[in-house]
Amino acid sequence: MNHDHNMHILEHGGHGGHGGHDMPMHECTMDMLWNTNVIDTCIVFRSWHITSTAAFAFSFLAIVGLGVFYEYLRIFSRRFDQNLAQSLRAKGKAPIRLPSTRSSPERDNGNAGLGLTTGRLSKASPPGTPVPLIPRLTRAALYGATVFLSFFLMLVFMTYNAYLILAVVLGAAIGHFIFGSSMDTDAVLGDSTNGKGMACH
């Protein structure tokens, strides 16, 4: 009798436990096509789950801010490299390279790179200037942060959500407007990689 009574209590408690889950459980909507979803949109992480219009608006502004910050990181990294190069040159660690006066590529092919007669690499033209440890670590950290943020924004773009895509593009445009107020014309005309965007590293 007691056994039947206990089983009845367990069954009743089990049903009561299910009663706590009668409220609808919202899941992330995963669309691989262009969409304008708002509620139940998940941004990159399952925990970044949009459950209200206000939360979506806040997320939109947060992504715009990330886009602006990405542009800041790009400009800051470029200026850090420029200041570092000037510092190394001022200390005499970065030689000033004069324009090449080679008369023919044939002579260069015979003297540079792997020597045909010696079989050893030529040391006449070093590939670059050694960077001290602390600036090197800083450059690596800046580069890693830029790459991470770039791919994060790419993942946001891959939600195919029109509003989130607009947030990424808007953030990039605002950041470029703010931090691109000046231009080094010599660098732009002489360096084809100067205008790297989010898709390049």
TrEMBL record:
Q: What InterPro entries does this protein's entry cite?
A: Cop_transporter
Q: Which residues cross the membrane?
A: 54-73, 163-179
Q: Name one Pfam family in it.
A: Ctr
Q: Which family does it belong to?
A: Belongs to the copper transporter (Ctr) (TC 1.A.56) family. SLC31A subfamily.
Entry keyword set: Copper, Copper transport, Ion transport, Membrane, Transmembrane, Transmembrane helix, Transport
GO CC, sorted alphabetically, is: membrane
Where is the protein found, in the record's own terms? Membrane
Membrane topology, as annotated: Multi-pass membrane protein
GO molecular function ontology, one term from the record = copper ion transmembrane transporter activity
Instruction: Output this protein's name.
Output: Copper transport protein
Would the keyword Membrane turn up in this protein's UniProt record?
yes
Which species is this UniProt entry from? Leucocoprinus leucothites
UniProt-annotated stretches for the region Disordered: 95-127
